[in-house]
Amino acid sequence: MDLLAQNFQNIKDQLPAHVKLVAVSKTHSTEKIQELYDLGQRVFGENKVQELLEKQPQLPKDIQWHLIGHLQTNKVKYIIPFVDTIQSVHSEKLLREISRLAEKEGRTVKVLLQVKIAEEESKYGLSFSEAKNIVEDYQNNRFPFTELDGLMGMATFTDNREQVQQEFLALKKLFDEISETVPLETLSMGMSDDFLTAIACGSNSVRVGSAIFGSRQYL
Ligand SMILES: *Cc1c(COP(=O)(O)O)cnc(C)c1O
Questions:
Q1: pLDDT tens sequence across 75-97
Q2: Of the residues 191, 194, 203, 208, which should be mutated to test ligand 1's pocket, given the most ligand atoms within 8 Å of the CB?
Q3: What is the three-class DSSP state of 60?
């Protein structure tokens, strides 16, 4: 078995059956993505629209592409025809645009609300109260061509496990609270370095990149 296959198997062995794996393929080649596809993986995450648009046409059409990075309103139109889930909805304006363009395309698009749980200023995301307001508008049918599938969050980049745990647990609490009014499927938390902690805190979908593909070379 080559390294990619070994890494993939190793991650799968650690995931409980109810946890979905989104393989984060950003910066990695279509050959590597194809190799992972051939090993059975179907859900892939990319964080840049441009990169996703270059890769998507070269790869099998039944890949479920998740956009996990910051999305600008003016770029939504490019991914609406094929994207499976937009995990990084960080504003009401963006969600309105997704719904508007999904209607034009004759489809609904699954979305996750990205909630800010980390301390870092650099990380995007809705506050808890903003997320609740959007959920209320969603219930009032303001984004009819979207399907609110759940929440996504990224913990602070730190060795302090306790802090990471607290951040994940806070999002799980919000997830449970919202689930009382709107049924949510997906709580997307956890990356290569913290997915086991995230799962212990209630995550049912992890976004794993470097632990499968190896470290990223940014050019
Ligand atoms: C890059 C990225 C990941 C994966 O990170 P790894 O540490 O390589 O597993 C997960 N989520 C988001 C939003 C990312 O941008």
A1: 999 999 999 999 999 999 999 99
A2: 191
A3: coil
Q: Express each pLDDT in 43-55 by its tens digit.
A: 999 999 999 999 9
Q: Which of 68, 158, 215 to mutate to test the pocket of ligand 1 (most atoms within 8 A of CB)?
A: 68
Judged by phi (left if over 0) then psi (alpha if -120 to 50, else beta), residue 63 lies in beta
Cα-based angle 22, 19, 155 (whole degrees, multiple of 5):
65
In terms of DSSP bridges, do strands 43-46 and 64-67 run parallel, antiparallel, or are they unpaired? parallel
DSSP, res 22: E
The residue whose CA has the least distance to atom 6 of ligand 1 is 209
Nearest to residue 65, comparing CAs of 85, 91, 49?
85
The pTM score is 0.97
Is 125 close to ligand 1, i.e. is its CB under 6 Å away? no
- What's the rounded Cα separation, in Å, for the pair 32 and 25? 8
